[in-house]
Amino acid sequence: MRKLLIVLGLCKLSIISFAQNEDSMMIRHIADEILVNGKAYDNLHDLTKNIGGRLTGSPQMYKAEAWGQKAMNVSGADKVWLQECKVPHWIRGGKDEASFNVKMKKNPAKLDVIALGNSIGTGPKGVSAEVIEVRSFDELEAKKEEIKGKIVFYNYKFNPTFIRTFLSYADAVQYRGYGPSRAAKYGAVAVIVRSMTHSTDNIPHTGATRYNDSLPKIPAIAVGLKDADLLDSILQKQKISVFIKTNGQFLPDTIGHNVIGELTGTEFPGEIITVGGHLDSWDPAEGAHDDGAGVVQTMEVLRTLKALGYHPRHTIRFVLFANEENGTRGADKYAEEAKAKNEKHIFALETDAGGFTPRGFGFTGSPEQMARLRSWIPLLIPYGVYEIEDGGGGADIDPLNKALNTPMSELAPDTQRYFDYHHARTDVFENVNKRELELGAINMAALIYLVDKYGL
Ligand SMILES: [Zn+2]
User: Fold this and answer.
1) Which of 29, 75, 177, 289 is a plausible cystine mate for 302, CB 3.0–4.6 Å?
2) DSSP assignment string, 124-188
3) Which residues belong to the active site?
């Protein structure tokens, strides 16, 4: 009996190692296909240079939708369609400007600024007022009696002690999101926000602000770190007034689309795996890392599985989501329709953290599912992924997770440079590295293959 158990044990072991060999060979094929014949980098060039920034509602957004539809077909999807959704239509409306006067100097000094997304404009005459600096919401509350009629300058620093920079972002982004309304509550006339970045340049970073509808809406701009430090040092010594002119406004909601491609499952066509990134991007740049990289990686997973003649057991959907940056209406629509149609979604993977060297995945699901994912790490280590972090998903798949409890994951690349470019005019094709972009796509394709083969 003991002998039989040993023999059975050995059989089981050899079955496991045979499966691991088969999997490691398949992942090697995936990697070779992407590293030798990859289209992600060329696709990114095309998207960023021929279309550029793709703000929701802009003509470039519609061009990008048509581009995505075509690229899905070329990459080999069995089916491609557009999923319509209502989207907000905010426009920047022109060049954002700001300047200030220092005593004894004749000409005003210019600040390099950008209006926050969704913010209202100042009107053609601009706004000029004395600046009051606060380093936190606590300080705003402490100074609330002094705010009326002034421009509030939120000089909250991106925390340098977090090693993962997304934690610094999560910590600081409240000032961009809620700073304008909280200042308006005490009578501020405009807001200046220190950019959420560690970048050593002086380039300002935009991103969505969210007004509280019960309070007056006031204009809001971001400044880069050098200008933030300059304002701070001057304000230590003297009072200054800043002039701001911005032109943002909301037009009526318009129509946008998620672009969806599908490889239909051979065994479980009714069970869906979603992989995606967002097609829209902020306007001052080309949206290369955010999230052009995710768009072309998504497409590359499709192209590679198809090129290798892989027939998935489950249906795999490749989704380029609409309107992540200032509304997530695409993500909401995708989840809403999945729920209304009673679809079964077994897994969703998002890529929206830049085209940098992959290091891991984040995962939100049950402990058993997490254990299964972690058991695959040895297969991914040769391609750079060495950890599955607890938690993770992303703005585009969170609604699916909420609606259907779908387990979700996100590609987690190295984060050190992401916020140098995030929502800034430096988020351009030239700042994406071909190899790093491709390695992200390899690990995504490998994970999708493993989930498809074994389920979760
Ligand atoms: Zn993004």
Assistant:
1) 75
2) TT-EEEEEEEESSHHHHHHTGGG-TTSEEEE-PPPPTT-SSHHHHHHHHHHHHHHHHHHHHTTT-
3) 324
| Contact status, residue 287 vs residue 428, Cβ threshold 8 Å | no
Tokens describing residue 434: 């071909």
CA of 373 to the centre of ligand 1 (A): 25
285: which DSSP letter? Answer: S
Give Cα 277 to chain centroid, integer Å: 8
The closest of 445, 322, 268, 252 to 55, measured between CA atoms, is 322
- C-alpha distance across the termini of the chain, in Å: 34
Ligand 1 centroid distance, CA of 9 (Å): 48
Q: Using the predicted structure, report yes or no on whether residue 84 has a pLDDT greater than 60.
A: yes
pTM over 0.90: yes
CA proximity to 307, closest of 36, 68, 82:
36
pLDDT at residue 5, as a whole number? 52
pLDDT band at 3; cut points 50, 70, 90: low
Query: How far, in Å, from the CA of 352 to the mean position of ligand 1?
Result: 5
Q: Is 128 helix (H, G, I), strand (E, B) or coil?
A: strand
Q: How far is ligand 1, taken at its centre, from the CA of residue 241, in Å?
A: 34
